[in-house]
Amino acid sequence: MIHTYWIALAWLLGLLLQFSMWGWLFPPVxxxxxxxxxxxxxxxxxxxxxxxxAGLFAWGYAQIRHxxxxxxxISIHAPQANVTVVARVESLPxxxxxxxxxxxxxxxxxxxxxxxxxxxSGKLYVTYNASPSNxxxxxxxxxxxxxxxxxxxxxxxxxxxxxxxxxxxxxxxxRDYLARKGAFAGLSAKDxxxxxxxxxxxxxxxxxxxxx
Length: 212
Hints:
212 residues; 7 strands
């Protein structure tokens, strides 16, 4: 029974260490140190090794169930209005339920009012209107959002926000949805400019040709 407690404690330790990027190392290292001290007790050695693995798997399980934003992720700046983000497009545009377009991008730089542009990282969920609304119909054709394709480097202007959780039990947890995709913030873009039109090869080309 005592040996089972060791494994249970290691599992709990792994869960508690989920907030540390290097937390996965602690249970195996601790177990190895204890094995060296009790190497003559083969039964205890086997239990300690199992406990180290249990702590390691617990940390991994917690990361999958409740992903955390890595250090330097662009989400640390949210919420913030009137931001400028330079990023690389990672997906073809898709229409949302709100009749807007959405893409995934990989952030490269971040800037805001009275804040110089700085290096940034992290995946970002971007939504935008593909064409101007009636209120903006006076805009010229050049003001329309350009066609966005994977590989392009774009400059985005808009509102950086924190995703919300489910409003009702069983409802869509948007924050959890983005986290499982590796993103921890969203951007509602007003303007998008293509800085580098170079695209990259991929399966998206076939899908894009079929849709077109």
